[in-house]
Design brief:
Radius of gyration: 26 Å
Number of strands: 3
Strand order of the largest sheet: 1-2-3
Helix content: 55-70%
Structural class: mainly alpha
Distance between the termini: 99 Å
Length: 322
């Protein structure tokens, strides 16, 4: 391919990527974080095409397989890409070319047989009931920060919220009398989640006594705010969680997502069915929810002995002499 043809191909790819990202934002409602990741992935793909002198609309499966192989093995001083990251890049390419086919810009999808490495399904780290209780006891005292932190941690554990959902939660989406909140998950999908009694108590104190003092006369729609009265950022939430994890001695086992994992695991261990948990977590695919079916050994043992007819302890039969 000539230099001018390569330049035209690069310009074409930039236009295609812009249209694709617009589709993802407007039609599918993907978050800015996801859009930025896809933009970065396709920019890297464009660099590969430019080196090989390839046109994005005429590439074949072998070209894409070479790109994936290059990422997996490392190239030009770059370290090999982690399996999870590579899986995301392959998903990005597949979505990109499906979009091009819908737009009738390509006749066949070159990613139809493209596969990334299989991701190992590592079980998420979860806290025991004692550890959760110990963590939730860390925000002590009556200072505004302590009351806010108590309400935040109680809500994240009670509702299984993602960090992004907790910081995006608005005051108007909270109904303490009904004991529910409205969360906005990935792809702007809305779901109703019940709130537990302890979380309602902590939230009521925060909303009625502390939040008005922090916000003052400012019009602030977010439920959780920083000490200046502005909406809490994701970084601010991370600092709060890690600070209390440190005082609880859980800093090596904690992230904001740990409370979500723990929420799901504890509900399943308590007898919650998988479909209900899927709704509360906001998972589009129940296969994602099934990751939490690693119940504790004690729970599995109890279920087994309660259900299996040959596992139950029978009452001793009276002896022949009695």
């Amino acid at each position: 391919m000539s230099t001018s043809a390569i330049g035209a191909a690069n310009h074409r790819l930039a236009d295609l990527v812009l249209d694709f990202l617009g589709y993802l934002e407007l039609e599918r409602g993907l978050s800015r974080h996801t859009l930025e990741a896809y933009r970065s992935d396709l920019q890297q793909y464009g660099e590969f095409l430019a080196r090989r002198g390839l046109d994005p609309l005429t590439v074949e499966h072998a070209d894409l397989a070479a790109f994936v192989s290059e990422l997996a093995e490392g190239c030009e001083g770059r370290r090999p890409v982690a399996a999870a990251t590579l899986q995301r890049k392959v998903a990005c390419l597949r979505s990109f070319y499906r979009h091009l086919r819908r737009e009738r810009l390509v006749e066949a999808d070159p990613t139809a047989e493209l596969r990334g490495p299989r991701r190992s399904k590592r079980l998420p780290k979860v806290l025991s009931r004692y550890e959760v209780r110990h963590l939730l006891e860390q925000p002590r005292g009556s200072a505004p920060a302590a009351i806010r932190d108590r309400a935040l941690l109680e809500t994240m554990y009670a509702c299984g919220l993602r960090a992004s959902e907790a910081v995006a939660l608005e005051l108007s989406e909270l109904d303490l009398d009904a004991g529910i909140l409205r969360a906005h998950g990935k792809g702007s999908k809305e779901r109703i989640v019940p709130i537990g009694t302890k979380a309602i108590e902590a939230l009521r104190i925060y909303v009625e006594r502390v939040r008005p003092r922090l916000v003052g006369i400012r019009e602030e729609r977010h439920l959780f705010v920083n000490l200046r009265g502005a909406g809490l950022s994701r970084q601010g939430l991370y600092k709060i969680v890690q600070s209390h994890a440190l005082t609880a001695g859980l800093q090596d086992r904690m992230s904001p997502h740990t409370l979500r994992h723990t929420f799901a695991t504890h509900l399943l261990a308590g007898g919650c069915d998988l479909r209900s948990l899927q709704e509360m977590l906001g998972h589009a695919d129940i296969g994602t929810t099934q990751l939490y079916t690693h119940l504790s050994n004690d729970r599995l043992r109890d279920v087994y002995f309660d259900a299996h007819p040959r596992a139950q302890l029978a009452s001793p039969e009276p002896s022949a002499r009695s």
